[in-house]
């Protein structure tokens, strides 16, 4: 290679990008309009399950904290980013979760990454469900532990792998989503906990889609299954039902204090903005004071599941506000989402690599902010839409997760 011929260091990217777009995988950023100016569009694409992201009490708490502490935390938590707002939120979350203490993280993603990478490392193993969220998988990679992938919700297989691995690893962790983000179903936590106890493994449950929704008190999948005390590490997000941004790691004091010191994504990232801590705290109070919100969103979701099936759509079994409507091919899913949009209904179109090939779907997420009329409008638009033929659907367990 001649020195005077500059080589484009990004030349490889053109072919990669061409391949990506040729597969119809390009996603675009489209600015959402501010609250109150959303014309007549009905939005079923957010994770704001309880409608708290624009609740005036939550907004006021965020504004007040911003006035007191400024817009950013200014430093990582261990340096000087930890404020009274963080302290108060951590205390409230610990009480809510029924744990000794809670660490806060800038996002739920960072919380999972940090929790996993601080409790396991090289020589250890993490058993993950194939459909776990990407950040649990990434956490295992970051940790250097062996990644042992188990078919979706297959506790028999999990038992077999745990038994076969006996004595091979130093520490073992079973990490699952409490509620699976793209399918809306729950991990069978009592069986998972029993296996962990039998094999002396730790458990980590990601409550990102459970907090505020499942269980009598809205504590998530662990409360729903009555295993609150049996889970070693609980990870949560402030960014879904709690309506703001941030994550947390909850558990025994000896665990959490270690995570706070050792988790890179917590130690080396700026603490979450005080406004987010204050907003989450206000939202958490509403979760506890207004259980009718979660009751409503569950009822709306049941109505949609029932009616969509009656209209001929494939709606897998799930519980709670995430309602997947299987379409199959990515293109057909995009066309359907576009058709709904022209009728004023916005739903998430989920394609590979977020879900495996052949399982592209609409991911409808219900919120307590929706009215029955709004859900009925969605049902009506689904009734009118042509149902694409689902191609050879892959078995859920062959799905690739990202
Ligand atoms: N876990 C699960 C199961 C999720 O779905 C998500 C967000 N999509 C996260 C963790 C990450 O949370 P956050 O958005 O707060 O980073």
From TrEMBL:
Its EC number is 2.3.1.47. The keyword Acyltransferase applies. It comes from the Bacteria. The keyword Membrane does not apply. CDD domains: KBL_like (cd06454). InterPro entries: Aminotrans_II_pyridoxalP_BS, Aminotransferase_I/II_large, AON_synthase_class-II, PyrdxlP-dep_Trfase, PyrdxlP-dep_Trfase_major, PyrdxlP-dep_Trfase_small. Coiled coil: none annotated. It catalyses: 6-carboxyhexanoyl-[ACP] + L-alanine + H(+) = (8S)-8-amino-7-oxononanoate + holo-[ACP] + CO2. It holds the Pfam family Aminotran_1_2. GO terms for molecular function: 8-amino-7-oxononanoate synthase activity; pyridoxal phosphate binding. Pathway: Cofactor biosynthesis; biotin biosynthesis. Residues 41-382 form the Aminotransferase class I/classII large domain. Belongs to the class-II pyridoxal-phosphate-dependent aminotransferase family. BioF subfamily. Homodimer. This is 8-amino-7-oxononanoate synthase.
């Amino acid at each position: 290679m001649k020195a005077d011929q500059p080589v484009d260091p990004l030349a490889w990217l053109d072919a990669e990008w061409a391949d990506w777009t040729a597969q119809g995988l390009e996603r675009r950023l489209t600015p959402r309009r501010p609250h109150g100016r959303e014309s007549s569009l009905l939005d079923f694409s957010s994770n704001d399950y309880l409608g708290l992201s624009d609740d005036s009490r939550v907004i006021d708490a965020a504004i007040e904290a911003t006035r007191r502490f400024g817009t950013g935390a200014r430093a990582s938590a261990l340096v000087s980013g930890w404020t009274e707002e963080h302290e108060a939120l951590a205390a409230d979350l610990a009480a809510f979760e029924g744990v000794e203490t809670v660490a806060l993280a800038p996002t739920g993603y960072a919380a999972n990454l940090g929790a996993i990478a601080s409790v396991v490392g090289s020589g250890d193993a993490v058993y993950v469900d194939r459909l776990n969220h990407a950040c649990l998988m990434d956490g295992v990679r970051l940790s250097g532990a062996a990644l042992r992938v188990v078919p979706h919700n297959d506790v028999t297989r999990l038992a077999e792998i745990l038994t076969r691995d006996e004595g091979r690893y130093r520490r073992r962790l079973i990490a699952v989503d409490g509620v699976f983000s793209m399918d809306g179903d729950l991990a069978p936590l009592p069986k998972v906990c029993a296996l962990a106890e039998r094999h002396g493994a730790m458990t980590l449950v990601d409550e990102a889609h459970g907090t505020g929704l499942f269980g009598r008190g809205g504590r998530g999948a662990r409360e729903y299954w009555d295993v609150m005390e049996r889970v070693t590490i609980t990870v949560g997000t402030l960014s879904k039902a709690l309506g703001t941004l941030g994550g947390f790691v909850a558990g025994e004091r000896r665990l959490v204090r270690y995570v706070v010191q050792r988790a890179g994504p917590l130690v080396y990232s700026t603490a979450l903005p005080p406004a987010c801590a204050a907003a989450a705290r206000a939202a958490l109070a509403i979760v506890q004071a207004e259980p009718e919100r979660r009751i409503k969103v569950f009822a709306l979701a049941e109505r949609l599941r029932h009616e969509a099936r009656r209209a001929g759509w494939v709606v897998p079994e799930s519980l709670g506000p995430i309602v997947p409507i299987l379409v199959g091919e990515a293109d057909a899913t995009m066309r359907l989402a576009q058709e709904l949009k022209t009728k004023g209904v916005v739903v998430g179109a989920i394609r590979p690599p977020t879900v495996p090939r052949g399982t592209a779907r609409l991911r409808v997420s219900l919120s307590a902010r929706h009215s029955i009329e709004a859900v009925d409008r969605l049902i009506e638009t689904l009734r009118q839409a042509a149902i694409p033929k689902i191609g050879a659907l892959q078995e859920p367990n062959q799905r690739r997760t990202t």
